[in-house]
UniProtKB/TrEMBL annotation:
Keyword Cytoplasm: yes
Keyword Nuclease: no
Gene3D superfamilies hit by this protein: 3.30.70.360, Zn peptidases
Taxonomic source organism: Mesorhizobium prunaredense
Protein's recorded name: Acetylornithine deacetylase
Family: Belongs to the peptidase M20A family. ArgE subfamily.
Length: 374
């Protein structure tokens, strides 16, 4: 199968984040085994989705990880010109949900696999495919926890998020949480008998927004736009009707942190303000939605030098979006971002990737194998 045929197959699996992924895992596992690779399926604690780890070449020895995620964001936008889960070719573009983010990269790795298997590799190449990355990198930590039983410590990990095939050395970290306030409902004519959860949440949000604005004071990292950590409230839900005291309210909040700043720690002042509401008789809850660390640029990174040679492009210092690369770095593995497509095409209707981008990515992976061949 060529890369376009593989991509068409992957797109046809509607592996939307947070849903079972057994079908796409089984297909990839069968394909890799048929190519002569060693395959390990790693079920996650959810019970209905799995990570996948594939090794080609000698299991002993330190090699490289080609890392990507199998899940995609939903495709319910009415602006799609065709079925988002059927690959459509138009000129030099291939349209479908996940073409850029990031089944295009998976297809390149899988298309390169038979060629890698035919090489006399002195060091291994591993494929590490995760689940639920789009929910805040929920699958990758379980894969990384199992890594010491699967291979020797890798020389590096290439995370194939869309970067126009330009290596990227850093990104911000992120943490997100859902705040919940439970008050006491009743008739709006007697506010003295109720506890309005929306009003209470409004106070927490006002505090959070002011606190978020203060983050512009630093720490600063001029490699990023903006060069400081940030906070935003993205979703608010609560109440039933205008003449009913709101008994329940939730708000979803996120922070994005520059390297060296803990995303989870940034949320602590907001959490403290939420829990202060208990003094007023409210019940509250804090639900962590996601958390992953920043990727900090590693000085003198050998992996960055390797990717410069493989792509012919000097690394970009930083991007604003997040990836699993920070988790690999946290695990002691040199990590870098490099993949086909552009992030501006992701998470939107008529997502596409260019055929030339796929060819360049497959060539990069094959050239990496050639470096490891005897």
């Amino acid at each position: 199968m060529n890369v376009e045929e593989i991509l068409a197959t992957l797109i046809a699996f509607p592996s939307v984040v947070g849903t079972p992924n057994g079908e796409i895992v089984d297909w990839i596992a069968d394909y890799c085994q048929a190519a002569g690779a060693e395959v390990t399926v790693l079920p996650g604690p959810e019970g209905d989705r799995s990570n996948l780890f594939v090794t080609v070449g000698p299991r002993a020895g330190r090699g490289y990880i080609i890392s990507g995620h199998m899940d995609v964001v939903p495709a319910g936008e009415p602006e799609w010109s065709s079925d988002p889960f059927v690959l459509r070719r138009e000129g030099g573009r291939l349209y479908g949900r996940g073409t850029t983010d990031m089944k295009g990269f998976l297809a390149c790795a899988l298309a390169a696999l038979p060629g890698l298997a035919a090489m006399n590799l002195r060091q291994p190449v591993h494929l590490a495919f995760s689940y639920d990355e789009e929910a805040g990198c929920r699958g990758a930590p379980h894969l990384l926890a199992a890594l010491p039983t699967l291979c020797e410590r890798p020389l590096g990990a290439i995370i194939g998020e869309p970067s126009r095939m330009q290596p990227v050395r850093a990104h911000k970290g992120k943490a997100a949480a859902r705040l919940e306030v439970i008050g006491r409902s009743g008739h709006s004519s007697r506010p003295d008998l109720g506890l309005n959860a929306v009003h209470a949440m409004a106070g927490v949000i006002t505090h959070a927004v002011a606190y978020g604005q203060s983050l512009a004071g630093g720490p600063l990292d001029q490699n990023f736009e903006p060069p400081y950590s940030s906070l935003q409230v993205g979703v608010i839900a609560g109440g039933q009707a205008v003449n009913i005291i709101a008994g329940h309210c939730t708000a979803d909040i996120e922070v994005r942190a520059v390297p060296g700043v803990s995303p989870a720690a940034l949320l602590e002042p907001v959490k403290a303000r939420l829990f202060d509401l208990r003094d007023g008789g409210f019940e509250v809850a804090w639900h962590e939605l996601s958390s992953y660390p920043a990727l900090a640029p590693a000085d003198g990174s050998k992996l960055a030098a390797v990717l410069t040679e493989l792509t012919g492009q000097e690394p970009l210092t930083a991007v604003s979006y997040g990836t699993e690369a920070g988790l690999y770095q946290q695990a002691g593995i040199d990590a870098i971002i490099c993949g086909p497509g552009e992030i501006s095409r992701a998470h939107r209707p008529n997502e596409y990737i260019e055929i030339g981008e796929l060819a360049a990515c497959q060539r990069m992976i094959e050239d990496l194998g050639a470096r490891l061949a005897a």
